[in-house]
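Retro notes
What went well: the complex prediction finally ran end to end.
Inputs used:
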Amino acid sequence: MLAPLFSSKLLLVLFFGTLFGLILGVLPGLGPTTGGALILPFTMTLDPLSAIVLLTSIYCAGTYGGAITAVLINTPGTPAAAATCLDGYPLAQKGEAGRALGMATVSSTVGGIFSVVILVFFAPILAQLAYEFGQPEYFALAIFGLTMLASIGEGSPIKNLIAGAFGILISTVGKDFMTSIDRFTFGINELTEGIGFIPVVVGLFAMSEMLTQSTLINQIFNRIALKAIKLPSKDDYKKTWKTILRSSGIGSFIGVLPAEGGTVASLIGYSEAKRFSKNPEEFGKGSIEGIAGAEAANNAATGGAMVPTLALGIPGSATTAVILTGLIIHGVRPGPDLFREQPDFLYGIFGAMLIANILFFIFGFFGAKIFARITLVPNKILWPMIFAVSVCGTYSLNQSIIDVWIMLFFGVLGFFMRRYGFSVVPVIIGLILGELVEGTLRQSLVIFDGNWLMFFTRPIALTFFILSLIALAFPLIRSRKFKKNND
Amino acid sequence: MKNVQKQKRANKSLPFFVRDEFRVSLVIILISVGLLITTFTFDIVPPILNRGIQPATFPKALLVLIIVMTFLIYYLATKNPWKVEKKLPRSFFLTLSSFIIFVVVSKTLDFFLAISALSIFVSYCWGEKRLFYLLLVGIIFPIIVFIFFETILGLRFPPGIITNIYYS
């Protein structure tokens, strides 16, 4: 599995990817998704494997990096680390920041490695199943992926679906791929090729975050000093090993579900840790089990989310949507053929994720104190620099100034979407799946001679449609249950 | 929790047309209707060349779906109002206006100058008054980024008053 990685160039990419991912994870507002989007244009100088290794190592390390800020300044570096704040910061306030970060590091590593094992076993099986898929099945699968947006952690289900539909709508801009008829081009030549992924991704993540940060410039963080990370004691291991394993399983499973990701995984991992704990009253006051539950789950979601991304081309999370974009712009089409034709490429990714998990353990353990200092870089210095990189990166892809303006437009749009409770993640997922949805729908209708009902005569497609209905109903059931519990 | 309930109550006491849920829904519906009308201007494929559905059908369906779902969120918001968002601070509007300045300067004068001007402007508006740091974000860092992109990615930046000097 590791053989394709034994080149000095790839190891160097992996090393820098992990380091960069940690830095991104530590900085609140950045994180692996925005960081991945920013680094995407630079990957054009790399070969496809190096590019994806870079993105996946950023993904793994960035997810863990969020825990450092969560524990020390009570602000999750990434949304997936939100649950870590609940117990990480209270424990740090008790003077046990080192112990809290030690547990976060160990559980993140175990969760991450566990999920890579799941990825290695399940991705090929899923890809094998995908051989049975024709156009109608892919259409039904893409619909299932989109309906899963309803239950994504952030925002209301209907708002997420609107955002997803908007993402698909963006994918229709430009020449229709079947008939070459212009759609939504408004006479602008640059739009005939469609709207690129990178301007949208960088705009929605990086630029909208810059605008968000502009509303928070007077925010002051209470930073807790870190002396050194401490490995968890025997007693801590005894208390938490079951939680770590359970959360690793939960995280991997949640990750596999299309469109879900680390944020949902960590919240479920945390609540399950509390449910099974012998001391649930300690949760929220500095429980070591709470940290283990949240961190193992969010890192386990990384490998899980790569399963549908690689096997089916359906992103498992926001960051895997960026990785999928990376695969597409490098001419790699995920799916069963990738497993048959380029096994070395895939094993390179699996191996890179495994090594990245080990590397961030080492970096985190010996360098957490230094990484914690990165949070001291003031936003008034950091964000103008990010702006310069974003603008040049977006421009570099097609050497088009229109792309830069599109990026700024989506930055403003993303800011207002987030302000009014619309998650930006569904837009990206919709944009990525848009062509698949429309293409498979139209080709299926050609096969079915325009008879829509034929979709329901295909067992796999029908199963995905039923799952889609369940995915749509799930948030309603969940909110009713939540209301009942609160009453 | 109490604060959120208070905010919701406060929102409910406002006239409907100034509530966020109304304004947001209205904007989405207006844009969607505008785009829906545009879809009727798309060329129609003759039946002999048409495969499956017309190119306008899919976007039309999406826009109708968006409009229906927007009505639904507005209906739900009448029962359960959105929380009132805080007023946006001055720094936000300054940052937003810097984007507009960037577009104007990059189009008329120079791409590098636009990045440089925006970086200094944003950094200053966000509270940075030290000259060295303003120069760092506004000049030194953009130069590093420019050289990096030019040498590593082989990128050629659009012509402008400063970029022309650099290339000559």
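What we learned: Chain A has one domain: 3-486.
What to try next: split runs per interface for comparison.
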